[in-house]
Description:
The complex is a heterodimer.
Chain A: H1 2-12, H2 20-38, H3 61-70, H4 84-94, H5 109-117, H6 139-142, H7 145-153, E1 165-170, E2 175-183, E3 187-192, E4 197-201, E5 205-210, H8 225-235
Antiparallel strand pairs in A: 1-2, 1-5, 2-3, 3-4
Helix pairs in contact in A: 2-4, 3-4, 5-8, 7-8
Chain B: H1 2-16, H2 23-27, E1 48-49, E2 62-69, E3 81-83, E4 86-91, E5 95-100, E6 106-110, E7 130-132, E8 135-139, E9 144-149, E10 155-160, E11 177-179, E12 182-185, E13 197-201, E14 208-213, E15 243-245, E16 250-254, E17 276-280, E18 287-292, E19 308-314, E20 317-325, E21 330-335, E22 341-346, E23 355-356, E24 362-363, E25 373-375, E26 389-391, E27 396-403, E28 407-409, E29 448-454, E30 461-466, E31 476-478, E32 482-485, E33 491-496, E34 502-507, E35 517-521, E36 524-531, E37 534-540
Parallel strand pairs in B: 1-31
Antiparallel strand pairs in B: 2-37, 3-4, 4-5, 5-6, 7-8, 8-9, 9-10, 11-12, 12-13, 13-14, 15-16, 16-17, 17-18, 19-20, 20-21, 21-22, 23-24, 25-28, 26-27, 27-29, 29-30, 31-32, 32-33, 33-34, 35-36, 36-37
Amino acid sequence: MIAAFLAALLAAVGQHVYTNADVENGARLYSASCATCHGPRGDAVRGVALFGGSFRRATTDDEVARIILSGIPGTSMPPNNYSEAEAGMIVAYLRGAARGGVTTTTGDAARGRTIFNGKGRCTTCHSESSRMAPTLSDVGVVRRPLEIEQALLDPSADINYDYRFVRAVTKNGDVITGRLLNQSSFSVQILDAKEQLRSFDRGDLKEFTIKTTSEMPSYRGVLDAQEIADVVTYLVTLRGRR
Amino acid sequence: MKIARVLVMAFLSTATLAAQVTFERILHSSEEPGNWLTYSGNLQSHRHSLLTQISPANVKNLELQWAFQSLSLEKFEATPLALDGVLYTVQPPNDVVALDGASGRAYWTYSYKPSPLARPCCGRVNRGLAILGDTLFMGTIDGRMVALDAKTGRERWNVAVEAARAEAGYNFTVAPLVVKNTIIAGPAGGDFGVRGFIAGFDPATGKEKWRFYTIPGTGERGNESWAKDSWMHGGGTVWVTGSYDPDLNLTYWGTGNPGPDWNGDNRRGDNLYSDSVVALDPDTGKIKWHFQFTPHDEFDYDSTQVPVLADIEWQGRPRKALLWANRNGFWYVLDRATGEFLSGKPFTKVSWTTGLDAKGRPQNQVTPTAEGLVVYPHLAGGTNWYSPSYSPHTGLFYVSTWQDGHATFTKGPAEYVEGRAFIGTFPTGTTLSINGTQVNRRLPGEGHGAILALDPKTGEKRWEFSMNDITDAGVLTTASDLLFSGGREGVFFALDAKTGALAWKAPVAGIVQAAPMSYAIGRRQYVAIAAGNSLYAYALRQ
């Protein structure tokens, strides 16, 4: 009854309640069409992050679906020959219903939050003002529970492309460590350990290495299995400001 | 002395010839190196300028003369044409502009608003124009061919190409090719399950003179290479300009992927003439021969590369060769009279096949799996549509490549619905994006760009200019042994074509996703390149 009321309320404001089948179908449609330009993670078009939970030109699910169907005239976003139901399935997928789904976790979010802020010392690096680590404020949208668990246990297995760290040594012998922001054949751009933006000509560096191990410590053996599950459960509730 | 002679020749040619571009002029474009009369510079598609004022000795004095900023945020992929000091290019998607080649100031702009139903797969792009007489020709992303007066930009005709419906995914992005009195072009749309074709149009009216379907229909030779009726949505489109050999009277075109891209289960067979080069009679559109690079492709390895015609010495004898670095990671030398395979070697890491047999057919091809299979090269290929160059002066073939690129290919369902992408499951597991970005945080081994100098006689690599980021830029060489190119790093640069050494570089405000060209006005040589959303022209400091 409450679910039905909630569904009606959401529909009235252009939001919808989706089934797991909707999300799965949406994922299939996304992969077979949208991913051509937007990429498998929804971030391949400049300035567009489809899995970020909010959209520049649309707020409601209906508005997102309308863009999928009609395209955006004058831009590279073409019209698409989907039914409204299919467009809705893609929206379901984009909304991250599957990605953030908590059904596969077994922890306690409140306990997880306590660990995150206390024993785990996660906020040392991960906070709203973080520069050297992801803020995690929408991690429940952009990562699946399994991926979050893997990041806690084996952080070096799949390092976020945006949080790769480097070690550079200038010809003068200065050692710079920090976060890689950009690189080319001729120069590199770094946010250094003092959180200063630095740019170097490659010719001025005698050493430049992108680290293949994460700056984040593994929590294997630090937190027990239940505590890991609690933290994962907490993190999947973080879904941005939407 | 030689430099002066070429420039005087260029000057005289532009001063004395009428503005009418006859086919004879295009055929003998080497006699007027100050002009650039067809997409790749000449009909052999060498993208090689005979202008020599800019040389390895003075290239350090190259400086920006002007920049033309397009009123578009689409990818700027067009190569301008140059005629008597005027540049003609396409502001994407389909606006044509005529610019003063000395100042970059516009003479006129032709605005075309394509149908909102147009749905090009990979950006609302256009690669350029063709010219014949005093008429410019353009294909549009909504399936039309347009002719314009080169002096005013006034429309002479604008025709819907039969069956090339925008809402079904047909779109023209290719710069047309002029052969005699025929304008040759074909639509893209191979990721939407269209049936590809190449057509010849009457320059006076736009009327279609002939059509060659790159996917043979029922009863035609090659149709048996498609299971059941899968040929109807077979793709095999053209979106990069072909070439022409006047002695053989053959025009050569590379065709794109079969559809659906990443699942070939319902199209068992070789899927002719997808991923092939076809040699056609330009008077009739009849096929003389074909060579298929990737039979039954399941990795999107379009063979939409520029066919480079070179007369080379092959095993001690002169040979009319066709040089082709393919998206599938191999670089081929074919006999262009017969299509005979002469050699094929990998130029990047290749894992989709164990190698080519004596006839050039790939052996032990792998297939995408339900779980996902890591395959080299990346879906964007070892190279792609980026224009290569052949320098008769060095005898080398130059091409932009992706090294170490790979992706995970998964076999998923693909159902044809008109106007919808017909591709299967988009590959994952890679940090390489087919869309341009100016940010690179990749590790070594995750893919990078490189320009290769390849020797057609031996198949061997002479040198490699390795870049940190990948590249979508074409290559221009000059008779003074310079090579110009760029990439995603926002830099336009010159290399020594003999050694690959960096000779000059300049920042440009965006990714280079076009190919350079060169022209002259009076005694001054220019090099032009589109980068970001602008067109830049460089010349030596005076």
